[in-house]
Specification:
It is a single chain. By secondary structure, the chain is mostly helical. The protein has one domain (1-44). Helices cover 60% and strands 0% of the residues. The protein has 1 helix and no strands. The chain has one helix at residues 3-29. The longest helix has 27 residues, at 3-29. The mean pLDDT is 80.
Length: 45
């Protein structure tokens, strides 16, 4: 794998992690909706 491909893949993976985290945060903040992750853990207030 070339360094350019490795850098692009790393950037894509980090972007996906950040966007996923933002999505969970946004779902929790919206209209009393409790965010649930893939493991069945829910956010409690």
């Amino acid at each position: 794998m070339t360094p350019l491909k490795a850098a692009l893949l790393s950037f894509a993976m980090l972007s996906a992690i950040v966007l996923g985290g933002f999505g969970i945060y946004a779902a929790d903040a919206a209209a009393d909706h409790h965010a649930v992750d893939g493991y069945g853990v829910t956010a409690s207030r």
